[in-house]
Specification:
Layout: E1 4-5, E2 10-15, H1 19-30, E3 35-38, H2 70-73, H3 101-114, E4 119-120, E5 125-130, E6 136-140, E7 144-153, E8 159-160, E9 172-173, E10 188-192, H4 196-205, E11 211-216, H5 223-226, H6 238-244, E12 250-261, E13 267-273, E14 279-285, E15 287-290, E16 294-295, E17 309-310, E18 315-316, E19 330-332, H7 350-368, E20 376-378, H8 382-393, H9 397-401, E21 406-412, E22 418-425, H10 426-429, E23 439-446, E24 479-486, E25 489-495, H11 507-523
Helix pairs in contact: 1-7, 8-11
């Protein structure tokens, strides 16, 4: 294999032409940076050509929302990428609420073509190294070396997250197991995992399998309760009905200790039950399927630039700037970004990370190209700031989708015009150039701290009253939260009253209390207090 090399390093090499790689490529191209996207497949979105295995996406596509405001419609569109082209929306590819994965593949291909993105297809990264000059070198399967000053991994999570269980190599993995229910007729099936892939697989077998057990060490978490869309979605929970209504299926809570396969091909599984004082039983099955998720593949990295991994080695450890904690210049886009908000918000999904990727592009501009974060100036008066915040929280899709993680930032340096910065990662805002030299406010949408501990369908549980100013601080449902900081220290906090229709614009209920909060907090700035 003859090695060839790019003559000059690019500003960026992006590995992966999935949704995140395409989103970042469009933004880098619009900014005029030198970049190239490397994609192992023949077209964008290789992952979605296989997954989900049963081809129904759980990312919603709500086409009719009673508004023609494109920003508001993005609140109900979980598949479109951010684009300057108002016609390039996923709703033009499907009107199904839970669309077919093939429609997303078509959309991604058209997105790449519409912007003529620089993508090298059939180009698989087999080794990533870094020289003494700090330049990254990505070697592909043909031996060509792609060089860049900064590297962005947008490959997603591509390796099966296989548990360490003796004998698990004899089981079938979610990525390759048959999806034809007839192949499981009258069989006893064990499915390892309690997430959407496991329950999606179980639902597919309800009509043909004799017995289905879905097993794992943790309780099933429902997305409608936790507000984390990676937890079990209603579209995949028909299996729970068959369990509770005695149809020979069951959820098993506990640990698989070992898996053995007999000469006749049947399985013997030793299982320790968590809710039966760790009683161990040997259970018999015809099939065992592993549906335990995915993890990041760091095997292509040379030792000098291999990222540190966390969360059971599933994710690269990231700084608030989505940069590897131990390899400077190595950034991550897409699903791996959820390491920053793991199981708390939407960073692992298109409708969340599209905003995180846009924030990453602005971080890169700020850090490496001397381009400050975009802002608009405002008079630093309480009514003006309240007007700006009320307008944004009632329209922004970024704050809505990346609740608690992405914020608008209002910088109010002493004696200067206020600056309104949109869509800043909360953790990045503190200590960043945006907030140096003065007070600042973060504006987020958030659920209450105990929102996932309350049954949303239990009418006996007291809830805060709609449009109640007095109850706003204790609101469980999504509502705007404005916090005042100085040097990262929290000085004040205001919660706007929740509203059934998510309309936080009532003059007395929402605007007036917010203006009063700003008036109090602005008085506390060094420029007006104690001088």
């Amino acid at each position: 294999m003859q090695r060839t090399m790019d003559s000059e390093p690019l500003d960026y090499v992006v590995v992966g032409a999935g949704p995140a790689g395409l989103q970042l490529g469009q933004l880098l191209q619009a900014a005029g940076h030198g970049y190239r996207i490397l994609e192992s497949g023949q077209a964008p979105g290789t992952f979605f050509r296989t997954f989900p295995r049963h081809r129904k996406l759980i990312s919603i596509n709500k086409v009719y929302n009673g508004t023609d405001d494109p920003e508001l419609n993005l609140r109900m569109d979980w598949n479109s990428l951010l684009s300057p082209d108002p016609e390039l929306l996923f709703a033009r590819y499907s009107r199904r609420y839970f669309p077919h994965a093939d429609d997303l593949v078509r959309y991604l291909a058209d997105f790449a073509e519409a912007f003529k993105l620089d993508i090298a297809y059939d180009t698989r990264a087999v080794r990533i190294g870094r020289g003494p000059d700090g330049v990254f070198t990505v070697t592909d399967q043909r031996g060509h070396e792609h060089r860049a000053r900064r590297l962005v991994m947008a490959t997603g999570l591509t390796l099966p997250n296989t548990p360490d269980i003796p004998g698990i190599e004899t089981a079938e993995d979610y990525s390759v197991v048959s999806v034809d229910p007839e192949d499981f007729t009258d069989q006893r099936v064990l499915i390892l995992g309690k997430g959407n892939s496991a329950l999606e697989t179980a639902d597919n077998l309800i009509e043909t399998a004799a017995v289905i057990h879905v097993a794992g060490p943790h309780s099933v978490r429902m997305a409608w309760n936790s507000h984390y869309v990676g937890h079990l979605r209603a579209v995949n929970n028909n299996f729970l009905d068959t369990y509770q209504l005695k149809s020979q299926n069951a959820l098993l809570d506990g640990h698989v200790l070992s898996i053995d396969r007999d000469d006749d091909g049947r399985y013997r599984v030793r299982f320790s039950f968590s809710r039966a004082d760790e009683v161990v039983k040997e259970l018999r099955y015809d099939r065992v399927i592993v549906c335990t998720g995915f993890r990041f593949d760091a095997s292509v990295f040379a030792p000098e630039c291999r990222p540190e991994l966390v969360i059971n080695d599933r994710f690269a450890a990231l700084t608030p700037a989505y940069e590897s904690v131990n390899v400077s210049g190595l950034y991550f886009a897409g699903t791996p970004m959820q390491q920053r908000d793991f199981k708390k918000s939407t960073g692992g999904f298109i409708h969340g990370f599209r905003y995180a990727v846009r924030a990453l592009s602005r971080i890169l501009d700020e850090r490496h190209h001397d381009r400050p974060w975009p802002h608009r100036p405002l008079d630093a008066t309480a009514p003006t700031l309240a007007d700006a915040v009320v307008t944004r929280v009632n329209r922004s899709s970024a704050l809505w989708q990346q609740f608690g993680v992405i914020a608008d930032v209002l910088a109010t340096p002493p004696g200067e015009t206020a600056r309104y910065h949109e869509e800043v990662p909360v953790a990045y805002a503190h200590g960043s150039p945006l907030t140096e030299g003065g007070d600042y406010f973060t504006i987020t949408l958030e659920y209450g701290p105990d929102h996932d501990k309350v049954d949303p369908f239990d009418i006996t549980v007291r809830r805060t009253a709609q449009n109640s100013v007095d109850d706003a601080f204790d609101a469980s449902y999504l509502h705007p939260v404005i916090r005042h900081f100085r040097g990262g220290e929290l000085l004040g906090e205001h919660h706007m009253a929740e509203n059934l229709e998510n309309e936080w614009d009532h003059p007395e209920v929402h605007h007036a209390p917010l203006a009063e909060f700003f008036a109090r907090e602005l008085e506390r700035r060094p420029s007006t207090a104690g001088r």
